[in-house]
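2024-03-11 09:14:02 DEBUG pipeline.ingest accepted 1 chain
2024-03-11 09:14:02 DEBUG pipeline.ingest length=50
2024-03-11 09:14:03 DEBUG pipeline.predict start
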Amino acid sequence: MKKQFFKMLSRLNKKILPSYTKQELDLRKASKVQMAIIGWKLWVTKNTLD
């Protein structure tokens, strides 16, 4: 159940949230909001793969 929830959340993130990799964002110049989005996506991805 948990893994299925995170897979659905991951698909939703991919559609809604921006991809900073494609934008070639420099992490040293990222704003706090951008860093929060990166952290959120990382957390969701980690829980999806567990």
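2024-03-11 09:14:41 DEBUG pipeline.report The chain is about 65% helix and 0% strand.
2024-03-11 09:14:41 DEBUG pipeline.predict end
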